[in-house]
Amino acid sequence: MWVTPSEVSILGLWSIDRANPYFVLQCRRGQENRRNSFTQILVATIDSVLDNKTSQYRILHKRSNPEVYYVIAEANKKEDIEGHWKWIEANLMPILEDIDVADDITVYIQWKIQSLCTEAEHEDVGDIESEKFKNATKKFHKVFNMPTEEKLVIYYSCSYWDGRVPRQGHLFVSV
Q: Which InterPro entries does UniProt cross-reference here (predicted)?
């Protein structure tokens, strides 16, 4: 999905899948085809401990300053992010080639992506938080084998220390 452009840094937890002069498509490390690789286990552990729900793919806008990038799209499925990449190549790249000033390119991209986000917000009545709550409800019913009549009120991500090791979990409140 298109996201409001915000500054990000290139971290070691991402690998570059594709790039062009203005954009970079990145894949979360550990998502390669190798099963149970050390990197995959390490990234999954870090995400689990931090209760991180990072998307598996993202598209960044490269500026003339190599230290500043803007995330403009995120997705969990490769097909979704590739659809955004194709849209960028078909609709943005021809226009960007005609703009001479690098700062004007960044401003144009930010406004264009912001307009796509606004358009998507009006089309999509589902909220991200409600999606997370639906996923938590499914997990609650599955883990505790609860009947569908049992309603989840709220859930919290929590942890406790077991000796020197933090243990992560969730606290569910239902009626």
A: GRAM, PH-like_dom_sf
